[in-house]
Each structure stands twice: as C-alpha cells, then as structure tokens.
C-alpha cells in the first residue's frame, strides 16, 4: 500500500512525472528493452502487443522506437491504413519508404532478385504492382534487409494496426515471425484484441513461442493519477482529487480516454453539480466504432445508453422487437468492438466498456429520437416488470425523464426515494430526489416543487449532506404563494430548513425559519382579528419538532423545559395526524431531555420510538432509536461495543449526523480510558468529515473532544490550541461552553495541582449551565460534587441530589459520587462504611485510569485525617501512575502528602535531563527512555530485563506505556520511528502524524 501511495505523489522513480512520459508500462518496456539488447548481440525476436482501442499500443511502440534510437539501432515503422482503397503490404511498404529516405536500401535496379522485389513493392504504392508479389518473397526480402541493416547495431521494425491489415501483409508477417530469430532485429507488432486474423496470428505466435505477446491491461488508479499529472505537467499532489476520481472512474484505465479527460477537465471548476461533456476525441472514437455495427447496432446501443453505464438485455429486446438471433449477433459485434462487455451483475446484463461511451452515444441522439427510444423502452420495462419493483422504479423514472414526461419521472423518483429510505439507504434517497429536483424547471407546477423539496429536505436532515442541497431549495423561489402551495405546506418546508440549520450549527438561522413558519400557521399574536383557522396537526407537528430542536440552542435558562414542551406537542400532533416518523423523532428528543429528570420515562420514550419504527417499517427511525438506547446503556455499564456497531450501521446507511455525533461519545470514552491514540485517530477522521460536510454541531463536539484529550494528558498548550480551534463553534451545539470548562480546562488544572484555578473553571461551567442549561455532562454531578464535599461546601443534601440523577449514576461519575459518600461517612465517624464505600467507588473507576488515580490523590488527605481507607497505599499508587505519565506536578503532590503522613517516599531516579526534549514532551520517563533505547536495537524483553536488572514483566509494562504515549501500534513500528532519536542521531518526533 505504501508503494502505491508514494507513486501517486512522487512518480515512478521518486520524481514527479513529466509530460509525455510513459506511465504504467514498466514491465512491458522491460521485456521490449531486453529484446532490443538481444538483437544488438545478433539474437532477434518478435514482440506482439495487443489490447483494446486506446489502451496504448501505439504509444508503447513509440517508446520502443525511442529506446532503440537511443542505443543507435536502425528503426522503421509502418501501419495498416483504414482510409481509402486497400494497398497490399501497406505497413511494410511504409517502413521500406522510410528506410529509403534514410538511404538504407539498395538500389532497386541492382543485381539479384530481391532488389527487384523492392522496386515492385515501392512502385506498388502507385499502382497494382505490389499485389503480384508473393508474400513469402516479400517476407524474405524484409528478412535480408533486416540482416543487412542490423548487422552493426541491430534493427527494430514496428508494424502497427495489424487488425486492419490485408491478408498478404499478415501472410508475410507470419513468415517473419517464424524466421526473425535468426536476424539481428526485433519485430514489434501491434494489433487490437477484437476477433480478427491478426488476433488469431497473435494467438498462434503465443502458442508456438515465436513471439512474446504483451496484452496491455487498463491502468490502475495510482497510474491514472500519475498519467493525469504527466499530461498536465504538474506534481501529482497538485492535481484536483475530483479530476483524478473522474479520470479513474469514467476512463476505465484506458490511457487515451484518461488523457482526454485530463485535458478536458483541467480548467473546469470542481463540484459545480453539472455533468461535464464527453471530450470530442472520445465521442468521435465511440461513434466511429458504433457506426461499424450498422444502423440497428447504433440504434441498439443508443437505446441501451438511456439506462446509463449498465443495461438489461431483456428490456432492450422487448423494446426493439428484434429477433433474439439478430440481437445476439449485434451484441457480439459490439463486444468485439470493445464498446460493451458482459456485466458481472447477472447473465442478462451488459455494461458499456467505460461510462463515457454511454454518454457519448446518448448525446448523439436528437431530442425526438431520444424521446421515442425512451418511451418505447419505458413501456417495455413496465410490461416486463409490473409495479416496477426494486431498482426498476428509478430506471423507469430516468427513462420518463429522457422522454420529456417530467411529472411521471418526478413521481417515480419520489417513489424510488421513499423505497430507499425504507430500505435504510439514505444517501441513495438523496441522489434520487436530487435527480427529481434537477428535472423541475421554473415552469413546473409549484405543488410538484413542494413535494420534491419536502422529501429532499427530509432526506438531507437524515443524511447531513448539506453540500448537495441545491440553492433553489433554500430560497423556495419556485413555490409561489396561496393557493398554489398552502401556507401549512410552506410552514413545513421552513420547519425542515430550521432542522438543517440546527445541524449546521446556525441556531439564529433556525429561529428565523421558525418565525416564518409560525406566521404561516397563523400563530402571530400581533395578527389582526379574526384569528386564522387552526392549522392541521401534520403541519403543527413538523413546526413543533423543529422548534424543540432549535430551543435547545436558544440562549435562555428555560430552554430545556421549552424544548421538552415543544417535543410533547409535536408527538401529540404527529399521533393525531398519523405521522409515526415525526412522532418517533419527538419521542427520541424527549428521551434525551427527560433523562436527567425522569430516567424511567426517558427509557420509555426511546422504547416507544423503536416500537414505532418496527411497526411502520421506518429503518432510519429504528436506527436512531438504537443509537439512543445504546448511548444510554454505555453511559451506565461502560460497554461501547453496541454503540460502535450502531455507529457503523449509521455510516453504512448514510445517516452521517447521527454517526459523527455518536463518534464524539466514543472518542470521549477513549479519552477517559486513557486510550489517547485511538481517541486521536477517531477525532481526526470525524473532524475532517464533519468539516467537509458542514456538520457544525458534530464538528463542535469533536473539536471539544480533542481539547479534552489533551487535558487528560495534562498538556495545557495543546489543550489551549484545541480550544482556540473550538472557539468559533462554541454555540453550534448545546452545552459546549460548560463542557469546555468542566471537561477540559478544570480537569487539566487538577492535573497541574492548580486547584484554585480548577474551582474557578468549574464555577464558570456551572454559571454557563445555569444561564443556558443543556443535557451534557460537564462534571456537575461528579467531580464537582467530590471537590465540594472535600472543601466542606457540599454535604448530604447535595450528595443525595446527585445520587438520584441519572448523570450521577453513570459509570464515569459513580466513582466521584461514591467517594463523596465515603468522605461524608468518614466525617460522621463511620470509618468501616467509608472504607467499603471507597472500595466500591474505586472499583467502578478502574476502566478510567486518569480519573481513578486522581480520585486517590484527592481523597487521601481526608481519609488519613478521618482514619479510613488506605491513604498511604493510594498515594503510592497514584504517584507511580502520574510519574509514569509525566504528570510531575500531581506526582510531586502525592509524594508531599506521603511525607506529611510520615510514610516512606520512593526516591525517583535522576537522569530526566538525559531524555530528549521531544520524548519528555510525551511524558516518557528516564526508565522508559532506557527501555526505548534497547527497544530501538530490536532487543527482546528478556534481554532488556537482564541488562537493566528488572523483571520481564516490568519491561512489558514499560513497552506498553511507550506505545500508548507515542501512539504506535506495536514495538516494531516504535523501534523504526524512534531509532535515530533514542540513539542520539535524530531530532524528529517518534509519534505518528
């Protein structure tokens, strides 16, 4: 994999490709070069190059000619012509004329028979004289010339386009193949791979061993990338990825097509949403080959092109009404011409050799001809597949679009999109609805516009593909006013746009759309009397659901209560209107909002949403419910496998906002478990994708997770940089401000032993939450409670409140709440109960090493003073962990507490200054550095233990710590990356970028 990647960025031999460079044919050129070298030493040979049109046969022959010329070899070339009357021995005569102009032929009138044959051949180019010459005599003449011309430095004769050659030429070539090995010459032959006499000649040469046959294969994607760069004279890293994607996908690896696409697309703006035209040279090539199939062949392929890159044979047969035998003959000819190939999808399917061939044929149809073909094919499709099951619905929609029947095409696209949503393929639904939207022109009826927009916006809310949302959908220009589109439907469209604005992190825009929606529903209190009729429940449900989502982002202390009220109204209205999808979404939101106040009710909401999804076959709602239930379960039991499985399913089905916001929770879990490498990888991947898609809410959460990742490592500088990147997005998701203070800043301060700063930062988090409450956990019912109890500010009442909340019972917060209980018990003199409570709390903290050891450090002083627990052992354990993690402030505080207790304090080894600064920055201790130096020498654990006088088990722990801190997957990867650094010869960082 690395080699392929490097080739697409640096070229074949470590340099960028240059214009005109031969790409992807290194193996073939190596064989040709070997044959040329043998010819220069008197051992002749033949190379037969075959392949489909455009595959690069002529280009490879040109490279061979250039290679021969560089070695001082004589060269000649000729090609069979396809224009004008056939000329006997055309390629041979052309090569001889080239040699004559170079002064390498004997005089035609000279003694002997062969000079006379030369005269006949050359004169035959002007008359019919050459046709009377025997092919064997012609071939023998060429052999003798090759011997004479190649005697000093060898001779290369190239004969191209032999699939167009006359029978006499091929007979002469066959003789040359049998005898060229005795001459100091190479015979390089090029022919297409379609069935013909030249193809049979190549097959015989392969079997007999008289020639090396090179079947040129299509280029792979890395080679396509290099070829595009070479054609444009640019470094591969500078090439637009969209251009490379189009060249690789549409060019099918055929160099001729790839080159045309490269030049045609070089000046085109990427992502303009329009299908680029087929390059003129490709169009000409496709149409010339299609014309050779006759009138019916061209009609058949043009009709097939209506289906796109793949087409079903039975539908074509039914549409054309032709005899199956005639159809088979035409199809076989089209396959031989390399215009189509049998498709692997099934025995009755074919595919165009490359997608541009279909587009070229389709573009060649006049409007009337295209509409006629499309109507007949759509009728045939409906007769063969009643009800248009499966993908036939979308195929029929496309055919009706070609036929100009816009209303029917839009109806079928909407039906196909509904099926896609029902099948759990959201991205497919977006694509189908975008096709429907593109069919609508400004003259289309407004109600049809509204129908497409409603479904498209619903699919975009689910998929998060805001990048694909067309501008007219946002402006709603085509809808007009009453009575074309009723006010209730327009209110529903604004509600959908509000949902999109929330997901994009634009709450102000969302509230603006909601204001418009409420005015349309007649809910404007300033409106003159009499009041407007009550809006339909369906429209109320959509607007209230959008309002519930938007309320969570509004700046107000009552926003959670307001959001819950809107969600309940939406659920009730959706139930009355018979909208189970909307009802289910409202229940999911209620499940999240009610979790803190009433956990059983919240779970009941989620379960009801899942039941609705199953009863009404709503896979998107079902997956959302599963994600919410899995999130809830993971919060309490700490197991995330179910949640990760649900996230993967969300990615597969195209529900990207759901997937990336779930990724935030999983990244946070990695951080809390001390798995900083996996957390980094997940955050980076999610951040890049969320930024690309414009998922503002998910992006804010993932950038927050990055700040928390650095905070839990005590890396304030990096945390601050991450928070600066988060700053423009602080209001894109509810609760981000309070989490930034509670989960990041304050936690980092605790690891730095800056407890006063931590208290202030926690206080700021509480203030933000009071002003604009959210359901996010920032430590209110966990570490803040423990610190408050330790400081004496909080007591039994506060502990009881926290213990009753669902947040206080999560796996992350249970240790903090449990230790707060233990501290209170100790102060009440119930030391045995305090010890037991502490033991239970610390067992719950085991999956979270940083929090576990921070808890030990925080409660040890109080436990020692009140006589419960094992404070000295706790401090030793915490000191060992924090010292190993490079968190010297908190490790030093542990040692100071031990001294204050009169307990023995471990003397730490000196030598930290010997650890390179880059390694110290990653918290690598001196002992770990000693292990790293031996690890870089590929020494095993047992030998390392012997050299350092420690146990193999201790070595294992140090190796594991090194891998965790540097993010390497195994010891071999670490050794390779860190060798120069730990041996004192390098300065680079030993961590993956």
Give a brief description.
The chain is mainly alpha-helical and 993 residues long. The chain is built from 48 helices and eight strands.
Task: List the defining traits of the structure above.
993 residues; 3-stranded antiparallel beta sheet; 5-stranded parallel beta sheet; mainly alpha; disordered N terminus
**C-alpha geometry:** flat
Describe the strand arrangement of the main beta sheet, using strand numbers: 2-3-4-1-5
- How is the biggest beta sheet arranged? 5 strands, parallel
The pLDDT mean sits at 87
Using only C-alpha atoms, the radius of gyration works out to 38 Å
SS-derived structural category: mainly alpha
- Total beta strands: 8
In terms of DSSP E residues, the strand content is under 5%
| Uncertain parts | 1-14, 125-130, 525-530
Oligomer: single chain
Helical percent range? 55-70%
How far apart are the first and last residues' alpha carbons, in Å? 18 Å
Count of DSSP H/I helices:
48
Explain the overall architecture.
With 993 residues, the chain is mostly helical. Helices cover 64% and strands 4% of the residues. It has 48 helices and 8 strands. A 5-stranded parallel sheet has the order 2-3-4-1-5, with helices on both faces. Strands 6-8-7 form a 3-stranded antiparallel sheet. Strand 3, helix 7 and strand 4 form a beta-alpha-beta unit. The protein is flat and about 125 Å long. The two termini are 18 Å apart. The N terminus is likely disordered.
